[in-house]
Write a structure and sequence with these properties.
This protein is α/β, with parallel strands linked by helices. It is built from 11 helices and 8 strands. It has an 8-stranded parallel beta sheet with strand order 1-2-3-4-5-6-7-8. The protein is globular, with a radius of gyration of 18 Å.
Length: 283
């Protein structure tokens, strides 16, 4: 087990309804992990069909509760990141919504997420656009939702994590954020490869992708995107993976990069102090 601390997994899910919940966070802590950003699972996994803002509120309350219980198990702490999965738009359209009506509902969900940030329990917002082929109307509506998330992030002063299609060049996306008052360093590309440009890459903890980003000397974060699904144990990566990869990267001579990933970049993006919270402070 690595002696390096702190260790932050920037994006994983804890599902107390269908999955392992806090037990997965305990695995992370037992392997040397100290801090977690816990993303709500898509609303349809936790509460079923959502047709109004209250359905999103229920989803977020479930995630806040499990995050607080996970935080009590960590040497550091955990924070919720709340938002609306971009894939919801396709489900809503399949249920009879127009793309514009679906976007309106998703924006209402983002309003609730921003409320959770402004009132304290949540750290950041999640949004994005589908990672699969969609109609032009759905694509345009999805971009509208994502840009609305940027407006909310600017308004409440928080970062926005993005779930998007694959690729490396997202300069246009961070320009949209800047146009809406959100600094580019507060836009995070979830499930990034090591060579993503534009947003802050949250790199999926594959060894090759991590080595790529370590060599670039840029701000970055590490994640597993653990989905906490009993039918897919360990998917996408298991909760022990970030501590294991951190240990390996320190052994490979990338300790400076690990300081960037676990201390400098979290402070820059989210305004959190992973060292102080490790010591029991409330930063």
């Amino acid at each position: 087990m690595t002696a390096f601390e702190p260790i932050l997994d920037n994006h994983l899910h804890l599902d107390p309804v269908n999955g392992r919940g806090v037990d997965a966070a305990e695995d992370f802590a037992n392997r040397g992990g100290t801090h977690l950003l816990v993303l709500n699972k898509p609303s349809w996994h936790l509460v079923g069909d959502v047709d109004d803002a209250e359905g999103f509120r229920e989803t977020f309350e479930i995630t806040v509760d499990v995050t607080e219980r996970a935080s009590a198990l960590l040497p550091g702490r955990a924070w919720p990141v709340l938002g609306v999965h971009p894939g919801l738009i396709s489900q809503l359209v399949d249920r009879g919504y127009t793309a514009e009506e679906a976007a309106d509902l998703m924006q209402a969900g983002l309003d609730v997420a921003a409320e959770f940030v402004s009132e304290g329990p949540a750290l950041a917002i999640k949004s994005g656009r589908p990672h699969y082929d969609v109609s032009e109307a759905v694509w345009e509506a999805s971009n509208d939702v994502m840009q609305y998330a940027f407006e909310l992030g600017a308004e409440v002063g928080c970062a926005v994590q993005l779930h998007t299609e694959g690729g490396e060049d997202f300069e246009e996306v961070v320009e949209w954020a800047e146009d809406r008052g959100l600094p580019r360093e507060r836009v995070v590309k979830h499930y990034s490869g090591g060579n993503v440009h534009g947003p802050i890459p949250s790199v999926i903890s594959d060894k090759d992708e991590l080595e790529t980003v370590c060599e670039r000397d840029v701000p970055f974060l590490m994640e597993t995107d653990f989905i906490d699904d009993p039918d897919r144990p360990g998917a996408v990566l298991g909760p022990k993976t970030v501590p294991k990869r951190t240990e390996w990267l320190v052994e490979e001579g990338y300790e400076d990069a690990m300081i960037r990933a676990h201390i400098d970049t979290p402070a820059r993006v989210y305004g959190i102090d992973t060292e102080a919270t490790l010591e029991g402070d409330d930063a």
